[in-house]
């Protein structure tokens, strides 16, 4: 499947899952740690830009974000097994939460339950 053919979270998740190799008995741990590690790689690239070690390379950041997305997709698939599109479910719930916070004037602040 070519880049231009990925039109939905479901398309992405189906293609990404074809490359999934990890121990089933430790899947949640493996995927959560992988997600944290890849997010850390994004942060590290940005840190090096701030420090002046390198110029902004958006292609590198996009590639790392793709790795973040892979782990997010697989983790979503694991925890939202009953959904036809787990990644879309996660995205939809997040938008609902953000809209609720915006309506209540609680975008800024701290805590999960604001």
Walk me through this protein's architecture:
With 114 residues, this protein is mostly helical. It has a single domain (10-103), classed as Helix Hairpins (Orthogonal Bundle), CATH 1.10.287. It has helices spanning 9-17, 27-51, 58-79, 86-103. It is globular.
Instruction: Give me the CATH fold name.
Output: Helix Hairpins
Order of helices and strands: HHHH
Query: Number of helix segments?
Result: 4
Sheet with most strands: none
What distance separates the N and C termini? Answer: 41 Å
Q: Architecture in CATH? A: Orthogonal Bundle
Quaternary structure of the protein: single chain
The CATH class: Mainly Alpha
Supply the helix-strand structural class. Answer: mainly alpha
Short recap of the structure:
This protein is mainly α and about 110 residues long. Helices cover about 65% and strands about 0% of the residues.
Question: Keywords for this structure?
Answer:
Helix Hairpins, 114 residues, 65% helix, mainly alpha
Architecture blueprint of SSEs:
Elements: H1 9-17, H2 27-51, H3 58-79, H4 86-103
